[in-house]
Amino acid sequence: QVQLVESGGGLVQPGGSLRLSCVASGSIFSISPMAWYRQAPGKERELVTVITSGGITNYADSVKGRFTISRNNAKNTVYLQMNSLKPEDTAVYYCNTVVASSTYWGQGTQVTVSS
Fold first, then answer.
1. What is the phi/psi pair of residue 74, to 5°?
2. Chain centroid to CA 57: how far?
3. CA separation for the pair 54, 57 (Å, rounded)
4. pLDDT above 90 covers what percent of the chain?
5. To the nearest whole number, what is the mean pLDDT of the chain?
6. How many C-beta atoms surround the C-beta of residue 50 within 10 A?
7. What end-to-end distance do the CA atoms of the chain give, in Å?
8. Starting from the edge strand earliest in sequence, which strands make up the sheet with 18-24, in order?
9. Which of 55, 85, 51 is closest to 67 using CA atoms?
10. How confident is the model at residue 1, as a pLDDT?
11. pLDDT tens digit string along 55-104?
């Protein structure tokens, strides 16, 4: 069983920054790919970024150059640094991993970008 707990969301003005954190339970963290998804009101959940166990990253075109994913295996934590935030980044952000063909989600953290 894997548990994921996100934190760090909030209200920020356009152009501002936030850093999300996701702490994972279990000893499998260091070998598991980790991802951030988001879901805006009335829209489907979409993949934002992913990081492999080896640190290889990939980003959605909409966040390239603005968001950075990183991980600290010693702390079982994955981060999402979000800069130059736009109103269209407003969504609930979810941490995600797949372990032994099972998919796990965190509870989500709300990010609102508004003046």
1. -65, -25
2. 12
3. 9
4. 84
5. 95
6. 19
7. 40
8. 4-7, 18-24, 77-82, 67-72
9. 85
10. 81
11. 999 999 999 999 999 999 889 999 999 999 999 999 999 999 998 889 99
Provide the residue type at 82 as one letter.
Answer: M
pLDDT at 30 over 90: no
Residue 79, strand partner residues: 21, 70
- The first and second tokens of residue 7, run together, are 């934190």
What are the strands, taking DSSP E only, across the chain?
Answer: 4-7, 10-12, 18-24, 34-39, 46-51, 57-59, 67-72, 77-82, 91-99, 102-105, 109-113
Nearest to 26 by CA among 92, 98, 80, 81: 98
Would you place residue 20 in the very low, low, confident or very high pLDDT band (cuts 50, 70, 90)? very high
| Token couple for 1 | 């069983």
Both tokens assigned to 34: 């980790």
